[in-house]
Design a protein that fits this description.
39% helix, 11 strands, Carbamate kinase, nine-stranded mixed beta sheet, two-stranded antiparallel sheet, alpha/beta, 19% strand, 240 residues, 9 helices
């Protein structure tokens, strides 16, 4: 078998990915499917870090619209990501994958605090590391957390998994049938066209650190494996 293109990756999983077709919460079949893919990727010798969102449980923007203090809403969102991290950790361990969860906010009863050197050591030992709690700061998205953690652990690529969207389009393909899919983009093209790849802070971090981004539909067959192997999948954002 051809060797993986990337030896260490950061996988960003949105909270919406966990709920499947439900309005909120978890679809445990989807969790198991994600765990199986990650197990196969880890089995190839690829070191896997994961950042999880919390949108299947909590939407801070909606809470703020309804009058909640923004900082409070964001901290509640961080706690939602911890719940998702624990659910994913359980699914991975049931699949036989040694996993560690680290959080940016201190909850030592349920997870390790985020310590960069410890995280890298876990990865070097073949453990999957889930990073929860965002960056630990309000006003920062989990996209920014994903870009930051990827850079900190010296990942070779940031894999952005989407739910039923197989890449980056010129418009929302669910609303506009004429939307054009991009096979590849430069960082500046993504910024200038204001495409919904990730928030501008996260994209700027990737630009400054030359971190390639692969945006793909995690529900397509063997999607994570194919991305790791360097097969053409979804949309690649890079400096090229």
């Amino acid at each position: 078998m051809t060797a993986p293109r990337y030896k260490r990756i950061l996988l960003k999983l949105s909270g919406e990915a966990f709920k499947g077709k439900a309005d909120y919460g978890f679809d445990y079949n989807i969790l198991s499917g994600i765990a199986r893919q990650i197990k196969r990727v880890s089995g190839m010798g690829v070191q896997v870090g994961i950042v999880v969102g919390g949108g299947n449980i909590w939407r801070g923007a909606e809470a703020e619209k309804n009058g909640m203090d923004r900082v409070t809403a964001d901290y509640a969102g961080m706690l939602a990501t911890v719940i998702n991290a624990l659910a994913l950790q359980d699914a991975l361990e049931k699949a036989g994958v040694t996993t560690r969860t680290q959080t940016a906010i201190d909850i030592q009863k349920v997870a390790e605090p985020y310590i960069r050197r410890r995280a890298i050591r876990h990865l070097e030992k073949g453990r999957v590391v889930i990073f929860a709690g965002g960056t630990g700061n309000p006003y920062m998205t989990t996209d920014t957390a994903a870009a930051l953690r990827a850079i900190e652990i010296e990942a070779e690529a940031l894999l952005m998994s989407k739910n039923n969207v197989d890449g980056i389009y010129s418009a929302d393909p669910k609303k506009d049938r004429s939307a054009k899919k991009f096979e590849s983009l430069t960082y500046m093209e993504a910024l200038n066209l204001r495409l919904e790849v990730m928030d501008a802070t996260a994209l700027s971090l990737c630009l400054e650190n030359k971190l390639p981004i692969i945006v793909f539909d995690f529900q397509s067959e063997r999607s994570i494996e194919r991305a790791v192997m360097g097969e053409p999948i979804g949309t690649t954002v890079s400096g090229e």
